[in-house]
Design a protein that fits this description.
The structure is a homodimer of 554-residue chains. The first copy, chain A, has 554 residues and is an alpha/beta fold. Chain A folds into three domains: 283 residues, P-loop containing nucleotide triphosphate hydrolases (Rossmann fold), CATH 3.40.50; 102 residues, Domain 2, N(10)-formyltetrahydrofolate synthetase (2-Layer Sandwich), CATH 3.30.1510.10; 81 residues, Formyltetrahydrofolate synthetase, domain 3. The first copy, chain A, contains 19 helices and 26 strands. In chain A, strands 1, 2, 3, 4, 5, 6, 14, 15, 16, 17, 18 and 19 form a twelve-stranded mixed β-sheet that branches. The first copy, chain A, has a three-stranded antiparallel β-sheet with strand order 7-12-13, covered by helices on one side. In chain A, strand 25 and strand 26 form a beta hairpin. In chain A, helix 7 runs antiparallel to helix 10, helix 9 crosses helix 10 and helix 13 packs across helix 14. The first copy, chain A, is globular. Chain A starts with a helix and ends with a strand. The mean pLDDT of chain A is 95. The interface between A and B is large, with 73 and 73 residues. Chains A, B: It catalyses: (6S)-5,6,7,8-tetrahydrofolate + formate + ATP = (6R)-10-formyltetrahydrofolate + ADP + phosphate. Chains A, B: This is Formate--tetrahydrofolate ligase. Chains A, B: Keywords: ATP-binding, Ligase, Nucleotide-binding, One-carbon metabolism.
């Protein structure tokens, strides 16, 4: 089997104009970036299309270290819908540069299910992350410039909450002191960088309903507090017009293609812990306007990704998903059943059965949002028939359809059964989406609802500092908003070692922070890494350009 | 008179394919970025063209606070050559984001002599600065990652010379401490950010002769020293392949157009103090291959910009300039003649005459490189006929042709006389370019040569710390390289208040730093600002997006 980049680079791509044409867009409707990428202006996408397409979310079980292949299943599923002539559009997140050089390599699917041009998507793409980094940097510079000047807003230098951001894994920037060097060097204070995917601007970018809404949301960003404890916003720093100037082109969705020639919007890439972890609402809306079936993905497992997709993105965007695909792998269920990573190669049906409780819980959770699930068993070559039957049986127990899919080895052809199963669910019309909780209500009540109903916890404990912050946030107008819980992706609980379907545990909220521009409050249940580090041997070490082509990017 | 952005936005632009076609490039030869920008791959430009075009440098007198309009003259001159059907190509630097939000607004010419689309060129353009910022950040992260790991290269954390870089005016990042936050936060050490235009990668990017040379130059970057004083390079950190991956598309020149429809390569933007201050060699070469006359510009006055253009860029690139335009304004000569800024509105022929010694010195300096000069008097509405005659007379005294040009108000039409005068010089064939000094020789001898012959100084004093560093650099292989002097742009001397044509002064070299990848040694004659700050009311405050268009960017 060739590597992902070998497959991607050997593919013959269609001109992006042909991809655009397949969804009714002419050459003048798109803004080309090279021959295989384009931006579709928001107003073009909005002005097209009749009835919106059917929205299909791809989510998964609690992931393991290897990843369960949600992106790969998403691409394969979209390509299968294309083979079935269902006029699909795929919507995915954009990769972040930092992790590509750090440890993980590319993030555009894998094997015969990839979005292409793979290396361009993984590198600078159309510059959206750079635009977000610039807007973030401008706000940071204007904040410190205000402090350095007479500080007419009376900002407390010890109460600044706006970090700096860069799209790189750089642990040395996590905790820093800025403003040194004497009288002309600014005001000394503690600071730190987050990676761009963790910038609140990324979350805003992915939820904004057009440029005006973008500007309004940017204006509501809380950058810190005055000495008398009042929030200071980006609007008060007069930074918002210029930030919008920096983002005005980036906000337009990026159109590329899959290896199967399916149109794909790859746009926006917020973290799935301190943010909501889905591609931009603008891209999903464009897909729904231009396609008949839209396949999209949420980050991490369904406890985090699907919950936020439903409770944040669908709520804010007025989206009505028609179906959800829950991706499971035999490997992941075995690990959830107690098998160590290095023993995954041997058949262990009992472990699969034991771990399948994790899958069952996610399937039941998806149903709580009124969205009918289909389980996709993402096949690995080491899976045995008995192991796959164990997964299927576990799904039967709870009345769920499970279908084996092979997007990695088979592309769209490998996902035809899955597409047919999803199509049945769409056609059934049984979807009746509803968020888990109303926005009205105390923050703690909403945290309790998610913890009990989705995680299976006995309740929520709030650390004293977090309780104080909750009081403040509710006082300053951030009570009737959704909550965004940052939690380990490996467990339903906040303890990454509690696999399967744990019970008898409580969730501890340690820190609460506002994302007032995005429109939610983030509750952190542990130390959340918003600036990753590089590995001992970073992935960057193996990369090079040979005869103009990228090598070593996987 | 409408503002620059109003003029630019009201222009009807040709599709970039039509501009490309005018210099013999087909649609498949270029990589479009939207409808009015494209990249021209290096190998496409190299494979075209017969005899190289004539290279014309636009330089100027010592600038004043208002700027003397070198970019505007460059655009107008190129458009005048177009009116004369001379198949011109314009080559300019790319603007940096930081100053645009800081104080200065756009940097793409002015009035009726601009490169367009003005706001796109001034904002993210084709992402070159972002690519350079990313490559810079990757090297910084890999350096700190190496320190954090066993540090097998035995890098001295107190002897790291590789800063961090961001394309923003942010004084709070000038001097910082990184690596705080305990055991997982890296190694604490002093650090600081420069603006991306000051990154050595920018200088390398602008001198690299293709991707292989780029990679070799990146590898030679000195990031710091080991505990036993040996230089540590980027190659030793295994960062170079991945940095080249990040830069492989950026290195291709960007093609846009002037308001007069002249093809313009706008590519690369190094500082003119700690670097050489011209657009990329790749772009200039592409222009020479595709056009019959290439108009290009060097930063600051001719003492800094032209000297580096000749001694660094032309030397490294094997370029043979045919003519040089020395831009002067009546205002600048008056200031050089002792008039205060707020008195410039009144006629003062005596002051013009007194200040014209500055212009005479620059004209004579250009001749030292074997390049014939033409003086362009860039007309302002407040100039009087007697003042202009005083400039012309000063030029006559030294046998130089002076021509009044009005690129701002008249575009190419306003520069026809200038184009004709330059054409005469080109046709005369009198150009016989030679660098001022051979690369072989001690660093101090080269500093002396530039200081005496170009600045008119009596000699160079080297501060003790700089002398020690010169010894080290010569020992580690940086003796037989050009010198790049960072000096105030306002005076021939290192004292910004000594205007006109000062004499009886010495130049003091306070600090010397290697740019081993770029291939020169930087000598700083005073505190050089490599990270600007924002103004009290940053230009960003007035910017906004209205109906999708940028407002407030000048």
């Amino acid at each position: 089997m060739p590597s992902d980049i070998e497959i991607a680079q050997s593919a013959t791509l269609q001109p992006i104009q042909a991809i655009a044409e397949s969804i009714g867009l002419g050459a003048a409707d798109i803004v080309p970036f090279g021959h295989h990428k384009a931006k579709v202006p928001l107003d073009v996408a909005r002005s097209r299309g009749g009835a919106p397409g059917a929205l299909v979310l791809v989510t998964g079980v609690n992931p393991t270290a290897a990843g369960e292949g949600k992106s790969t299943v998403s691409v394969g599923l979209a390509d299968a819908f294309k083979l079935r002539e269902r006029n699909p559009v795929l919507c995915l997140r954009e990769p972040s540069l930092g992790p590509i050089f750090g440890i993980k390599g590319g993030a555009a699917g894998g094997g015969w299910s990839q979005v292409v041009p793979m290396e361009e998507i993984n590198l600078h793409f159309t510059g959206d992350f750079h635009a977000i980094s610039s807007a973030h940097a401008l706000l940071a510079a204007m904040l410190d410039n205000h402090l350095y000047r007479p500080n007419s807003l009376d900002i407390d230098p010890t109460a600044i909450t706006w970090p700096r951001a860069v799209d790189m894994n750089d642990r040395a920037l996590r905790s820093i002191v800025v403003g040194l060097g004497g009288r002309t060097g600014g005001v000394p204070r503690q600071d730190g960088f987050v990676i761009t995917a963790a910038s609140e601007i990324m979350a805003i970018f992915c939820l904004a309903d057009g440029l005006e809404d973008l500007e309004a949301r940017l204006g509501r960003i809380i950058v810190g507090y005055s000495r008398d404890g009042e929030p200071i916003t980006a609007a008060q720093l007069d930074a918002v017009g210029a930030m919008t100037v920096l983002l005005k082109d980036a906000i337009n969705p990026n159109l590329v293609q899959t290896l199967g020639g399916t149109p794909a919007f790859v746009h926006g890439g917020p973290f799935a812990n301190i943010a909501h972890g889905c591609n931009s609402l603008a891209a999903t809306r464009a897909g729904l306007a231009l396609g008949d079936v839209v396949v999209t993905e949420a980050g991490f497992g369904a406890d985090l990704g699907a919950e936020k997709f439903f409770d944040i993105k669908c709520r804010f965007g007025g989206l009505e998903p028609a179906a959800a695909v829950v991706v499971a792998t035999v490997r992941a269920l075995k690990m959830n059943g107690g098998v160590a990573k290095d023993a995954l190669g041997s058949e262990d049906v009992a472990a699969v059965r034991a771990g399948a409780v994790n899958l069952q819980a996610h399937v039941e959770n998806v149903r709580r949002f009124g969205v009918p699930p289909v389980v996709a068993i993402n096949r690995f070559t080491s899976d045995t028939p008995a192991e796959i039957e164990a997964v299927t049986a576990a799904c039967r127990e709870i009345g769920a359809t499970a279908v084996v899919a092979d997007p990695w080895g088979g592309g769209g052809e490998g996902c035809l059964d899955l597409a047919d199963a999803v199509q049945s669910v769409i056609d059934s019309g049984e979807a009746d989406y509803r968020p888990l909780y109303p926005t009205e209500g105390s923050l703690v009540s909403k945290l309790e609802t998610v913890a009990r109903e989705i995680y299976g916890a006995d309740g929520v404990d709030v650390a004293p500092a977090a309780a104080t912050e909750i009081e403040r946030l509710e006082r300053i107008g951030l009570r009737d908003v959704p909550v965004c819980i940052a939690k380990t992706q490996y467990s339903f609980s906040d303890d990454p070692t509690l696999l399967g379907r744990p019970s008898g545990f409580r969730i501890t909220v340690r820190e609460v922070t506002p994302s007032a521009g995005a429109g939610f409050v983030v509750a952190k249940t542990g130390a959340v890494m918003t600036m990753p580090g590089l590995a001992a041997r970073p992935a960057a070490v193996g990369m090079e350009v040979v005869d103009g082509a990228v090598r070593g990017l996987f």
